[in-house]
Amino acid sequence: MASNSKKKRLGSQYRVLFYLGEGTFGTVVLASHLKTEALVAVKMVEISKETLKVIQAEREILATLKHPNIIRLFQVLITSSHVNFVLEYASGGNLFDLIQEHGPLQEEEAKHIFGQLVASLKYCHNLYIAHRDIKPQNVLLDEERNVKLTDFGLAIKCSPGRLLSRKCGTRRFWAPEKLDIRGSRNITPS
């Protein structure tokens, strides 16, 4: 499946199986490709004045990212009312649910998961991309519990040395320095 845009209905290529969740800007469903039966996650975002900029930014950023620990964008389907991001499906759920169901992670599993999360963030930062909404719900896991960082709806491509000051993301997961009125640190590649 290639990452391209087509003015097609979701139903012409995919069969929606069931609802997976809700995000700030859209609904996510599990779907099956009609010909191959491959499972995908589809993030459906309603087109409006408020979401147009977010849709374009997320699309550009996702198309740029190629890393084993970042969810892959396969295709973008556009209808008159929605943009549908056809994404890799991570069947292992998310980190939040894993901890809720099984309690704290064992040390080895925590090292595995957080090592992969750090690798995905380092990759983004080397491309001057700030995710801006890191939280357990956005850390998906595949069937082997490999990390798949997702939800780049608030991500931004930065200029080297640019100071980020806009407060966004999920407040209870903000870094302590984000609560400081002086703004956040520069993002520089390592």
TrEMBL record:
Database matches in SMART domains: S_TKc
Transferase in keyword set: yes
Domain (Protein kinase) ranges: 14-190
Domain of life: Eukaryota
Pfam families cross-referenced by the UniProt entry: Pkinase (PF00069)
Recorded GO CC terms: cytoplasm
Gene3D superfamilies associated with the record: Transferase(Phosphotransferase) domain 1
Binding-site list for ATP: 43
Alphabetically ordered keywords of this record: ATP-binding, Kinase, Nucleotide-binding, Serine/threonine-protein kinase, Transferase
InterPro entries: Kinase-like_dom_sf, Prot_kinase_dom, Protein_kinase_ATP_BS, Ser/Thr_kinase_AS
Catalytic reaction equation(s): L-seryl-[protein] + ATP = O-phospho-L-seryl-[protein] + ADP + H(+); L-threonyl-[protein] + ATP = O-phospho-L-threonyl-[protein] + ADP + H(+)
Recorded GO MF terms: ATP binding; tau-protein kinase activity
GO biological process, one term: microtubule cytoskeleton organization
EC number(s) from the headed UniProt entry: 2.7.11.1
Family membership noted in the UniProt record: Belongs to the protein kinase superfamily.
Protein name (Swiss-Prot/TrEMBL): non-specific serine/threonine protein kinase
Organism: Mus spicilegus (Mound-building mouse)
